[in-house]
């Protein structure tokens, strides 16, 4: 489809989403061209960072209004041929649509390309964005508020009433969900449309047992159609944080901890079984790469929307196009690339390597991380500490996090810091000596102060009364500021 | 307004930092004009702030102040590959309402300092981000689609494009400042070069390089006068435009420049045309009025624009073979035309040059300047 924004009065047209004609102040309407013909084609043999795989073709398409658009494809066409966008054949297809300045149209197009997913005006909807920490969306794994705004408008188009829509999320354990949603800009979107934002951590929950594993699942998630809106990002534990990972926060805090303690790659697919009605519309408008969130992650500016019913297929597709590794979910059959049905844009035409996440790319050549599948709470602490000390050099320190650390991984580590309750608990019965143990109850400022001492001084420094005063002062100051 | 002096570095892959390139070109221009930096009242410069070359120097105007140790009005006018021409056009317009006597106009660029992929990416940023960059429409691809439409419409061939490349390489062979100076390229090599973006081959594309060029523009009479100066912009993406095979910005800026100069295209003796791609040179023959629509191929086939032809084009070797250091290109065109008018062009000297034209393009016809020079004395 080719879209132009056209003035109803003077017929000027734009390739950008303009709201009012700057010449005659006339009303702007979207002109959509759907009958596309190939009027030009070039085979490109020069790779570039965004387009590393050659050769590829760029078609020059023209619609019934005479509007034109370049389109990259790996397929061969002839001049004069019709260009027809294929619709999904199976329910497991993944649609990938490029955002041409208009997220709303991209979401609509993605839904239109898919088979077997329809909204009814009486549907009750739970929009599950990703909002993990109090930061602007491009700084963290936080869904773009413009994306949520566009999605809500699409739902309204289906006749769904605002009373039947909720946006529900909980930030990483230890962070305030509403603060995070507010900073990310999503709370304002909810207010704009009169839609309730629900903090999942506050429940209510329903206890469920699935495949011999107990979950406290957010009740609303069981009663509504879930529109899963992850932000697509690199993740050092799972390869990517995407459609599957985003569902892990539909349970209470303790369940989340347990799920990671008992291996998230086993437990999360079990949780997913309890959630019947999931449709993923993934936000890769910005996306994110490298070791984020915050200081060491960076937006990837992908300008994509991915959509589909099969969350595993969707993540696999994203992993293919970004060349990021992907964890193997236990109990879920491996997905072969050749069996993926991808529509809208082919994976090959979109391939563009993103920077992988690596906890040791933390801004400290002297801080090494050994991850034992840490839970979000411990990860949050680790990120908080390493982000705040970026650039500080010292004697090498190894931080151990997570419940699944092998003793052998920690041998010969002179200065070991055991971080988070999971690691402390799992290593309690071993003879591993550590320079410090930092639990989750320790004040966040004190955690940073202690790590700073560990990095820059010898021995086994402790939190002192002076540190505690400093911590209190800092908190007071932050409230005043 | 008069061109009092011109200077340029050799275009190539030298490691010199931008400040040194600028200093070298400006020194030559000042020496050529027989004035000193003390006599310069203002500077207009152009540069694209290439981020991958490691210089991290966004505030180029003040950098130039430091370089010349002089406090005066300095303005930077980045305009993609049309930067040099736009800097000259800006300076010409400044004069209208100022008491300046001498202005220094500088274009400089140092893109070749990183991997080919990074440099390609830098240049890709000149295209429309959402509609073109994400669809893999780099500059060769963008111009390939234009060239294809042109060839389909007017029957031009890849052999015609090869003739443009061959002509410009032959000229660059004679130009000591050119990237391809004394480097022989045969027609066979051009025709057998790999396809970059069909129908364009490697040798249909200009060569990016480092360099700087400068000129002294003055109210004081000298041997070269600027009698026409025009600039026109068009939509960023060619696919938005009604006609892909004729670039409005060239047509309009040429019309305006001829009007100011009170001459017609027939009066032009030589031209430096923005041959970022060989197809652009053919299209520009037509848009500049040197022939009718679709007749550009005839000019190259008949040798009309060869060094010994009726109206030589790109005697310097053009962007194709002299080289294309983005913002420096437009000023380097004026350098060549000035040398030709003064009969200082050495082995590539054209006889009896009275009127000369420079066309400088940013993007695929997105920004175009046309300047017309006249032999004044």
Structural summary, described in words:
- The complex is a heterodimer of chains A (481) and B (377).
- The longest helix of chain A is centred in the C-terminal third of the chain and has 16 residues, at 465-480.
- Chain A has helices at residues 103-113, 145-157, 177-184, 186-193, 219-223, 253-261, 264-274, 311-322, 347-350, 376-388, 407-410, 421-427, 444-456, 465-480, and strands at 2-7, 13-14, 28-33, 36-44, 56-62, 68-73, 82-83, 94-98, 125-129, 165-169, 196-199, 205-210, 213-218, 225-229, 231-235, 239-241, 278-290, 297-299, 304-308, 342-343, 367-372, 397-402, 416-419, 436-438.
- Chain A has 481 residues and is an alpha/beta fold.
- In chain A, helix 10 (376-388) crosses helix 13 and helix 13 crosses helix 14.
- The model of chain A has no long low-confidence stretch (mean pLDDT 91).
- The N and C termini of chain A lie far apart (49 Å).
- Chain A folds into three domains: 2-83, no CATH class; 94-350, Rossmann fold; 367-480, no CATH class.
- In chain A, strands 8, 9, 10, 11, 14, 15, 16, 17, 18, 19 and 20 form an eleven-stranded mixed sheet that branches.
- Chain A is 28% helix and 26% strand.
- By secondary structure, chain B is an alpha/beta fold.
- Helices cover 35% and strands 18% of the residues of chain B.
- In chain B, the strands form two sheets. A nine-stranded mixed sheet of chain B has the order 3-2-4-7-1-8-11-10-9, sandwiched between helices. A two-stranded antiparallel ribbon of chain B has the order 5-6.
- In chain B, helix 2 links the parallel strand 2 and strand 3.
- Chain B is globular and about 55 Å long.
- Chain B starts with a strand and ends with a strand.
- The mean pLDDT of chain B is 96.
- At the A-B interface, strand 4, strand 5 and strand 6 of A face helix 4, helix 5 and strand 5 of B.
């Amino acid at each position: 489809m080719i879209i132009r924004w056209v003035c109803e009065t003077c017929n000027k047209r734009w390739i950008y989403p303009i709201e009012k004609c700057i010449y005659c102040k006339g009303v702007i309407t979207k002109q959509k061209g759907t009958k596309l013909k190939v009027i030009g084609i070039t085979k490109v043999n020069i790779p570039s960072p965004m387009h590393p795989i050659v050769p590829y073709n760029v078609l020059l398409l023209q619609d019934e209004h005479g509007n034109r658009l370049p389109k990259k494809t790996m397929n061969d066409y002839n001049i004069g041929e019709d260009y027809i966008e294929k619709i999904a054949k199976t329910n497991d297809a993944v649609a990938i649509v490029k955002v041409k300045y208009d997220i709303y149209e991209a979401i609509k197009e993605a839904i239109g390309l898919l088979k077997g997913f329809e909204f009814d005006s009486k549907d009750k909807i739970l929009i599950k964005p990703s909002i993990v920490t109090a930061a602007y969306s491009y700084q963290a794994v936080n869904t773009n508020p413009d994306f949520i705004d566009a999605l809500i408008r699409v739902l309204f188009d289906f006749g769904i009433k605002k009373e039947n829509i909720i946006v529900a999320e909980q930030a990483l354990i230890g962070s305030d969900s509403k603060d995070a949603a507010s900073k990310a800009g999503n709370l304002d979107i909810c207010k704009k449309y009169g839609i309730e934002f629900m903090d999942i951590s506050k429940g209510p929950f329903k206890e469920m047992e699935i495949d011999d594993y107990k979950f406290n699942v957010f009740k609303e998630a069981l009663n509504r159609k879930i529109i899963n809106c992850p932000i697509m990002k690199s993740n050092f534990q799972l390869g990517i944080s995407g459609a599957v990972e985003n569902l892990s926060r539909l349970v209470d805090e303790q369940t989340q901890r347990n799920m990671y303690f008992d291996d998230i790659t086993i437990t999360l697919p079990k949780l997913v079984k309890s959630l019947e009605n999931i449709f993923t519309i993934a936000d890769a408008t910005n996306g994110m790469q490298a070791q984020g969130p915050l200081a060491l992650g960076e937006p990837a500016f992908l300008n994509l929307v991915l959509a589909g019913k099969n969350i595993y297929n969707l993540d696999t597709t994203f992993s293919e196009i970004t060349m990021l590794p992907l964890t193997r979910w236990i109990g879920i059959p491996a997905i072969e690339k050749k069996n993926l049905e991808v529509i809208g844009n082919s994976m090959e035409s979109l391939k563009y390597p993103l920077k992988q996440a690596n906890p040791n790319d933390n801004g400290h050549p002297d801080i090494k991380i050994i991850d034992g599948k840490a839970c979000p709470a411990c990860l949050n602490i680790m990120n908080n500490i390493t982000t705040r000390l970026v650039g500080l050099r010292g004697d090498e320190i190894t931080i151990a996090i997570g419940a699944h650390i092998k003793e052998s991984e920690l041998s010969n580590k002179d200065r070991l810091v055991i971080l988070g309750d999971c690691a402390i608990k799992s290593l309690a019965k071993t003879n591993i000596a550590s320079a410090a143990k930092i639990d989750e109850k320790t004040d966040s400022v004190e955690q940073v102060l202690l790590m700073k001492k560990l990095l820059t001084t010898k021995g086994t420094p402790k939190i002192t009364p002076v540190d505690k005063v400093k911590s209190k002062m800092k908190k007071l100051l932050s409230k005043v500021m | 307004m008069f061109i009092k002096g011109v200077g340029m570095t050799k275009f190539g892959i030298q490691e010199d930092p931008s400040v040194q390139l600028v200093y070298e070109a400006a020194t030559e221009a000042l020496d050529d004009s027989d004035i000193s930096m003390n006599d310069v009242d203002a500077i207009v410069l152009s540069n694209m702030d290439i981020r991958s070359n490691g210089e991290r120097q966004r505030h180029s105007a003040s950098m130039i102040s430091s370089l010349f140790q002089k406090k005066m009005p300095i303005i930077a006018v980045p305009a993609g590959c049309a930067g040099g021409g736009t800097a000259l056009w800006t300076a010409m317009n400044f004069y209208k309402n100022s008491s300046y006597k001498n202005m220094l106009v500088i274009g400089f660029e140092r893109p070749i300092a990183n991997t080919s992929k990074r440099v390609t990416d830098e240049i890709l940023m000149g295209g429309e981000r959402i509609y073109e960059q994400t669809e893999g429409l780099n500059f060769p691809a963008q111009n390939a689609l234009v060239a294809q439409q042109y060839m389909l419409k007017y029957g031009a061939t890849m052999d015609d494009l090869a003739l443009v490349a061959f002509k410009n390489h032959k000229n660059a062979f004679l130009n000591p400042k050119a990237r391809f100076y004394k480097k022989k390229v045969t027609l066979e090599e051009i025709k057998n070069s790999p396809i970059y973006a069909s129908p364009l081959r490697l040798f249909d594309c200009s060569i990016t390089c480092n360099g700087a060029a400068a000129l002294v523009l003055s109210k004081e009479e000298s041997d070269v006068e600027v009698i026409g100066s025009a600039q026109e912009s068009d939509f960023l993406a060619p696919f938005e435009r009604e006609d892909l095979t004729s670039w409005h910005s060239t047509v309009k800026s040429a019309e305006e420049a001829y009007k100011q100069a009170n001459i017609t295209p027939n009066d032009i003796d030589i031209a430096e045309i923005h041959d970022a791609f060989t197809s652009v040179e053919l299209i520009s023959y037509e848009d500049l009025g040197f022939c009718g629509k679709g007749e550009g191929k005839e000019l190259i086939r008949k040798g009309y624009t060869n060094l010994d032809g009726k109206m030589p084009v790109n005697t310097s070797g053009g962007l194709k073979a002299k080289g294309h250091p983005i913002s420096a290109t437009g000023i380097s065109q004026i350098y060549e035309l000035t040398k030709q008018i003064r009969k200082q062009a050495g082995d590539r000297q054209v006889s009896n040059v009275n009127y000369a034209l420079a066309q400088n393009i940013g993007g695929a016809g997105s920004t175009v300047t046309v300047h017309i020079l006249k032999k004044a004395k």
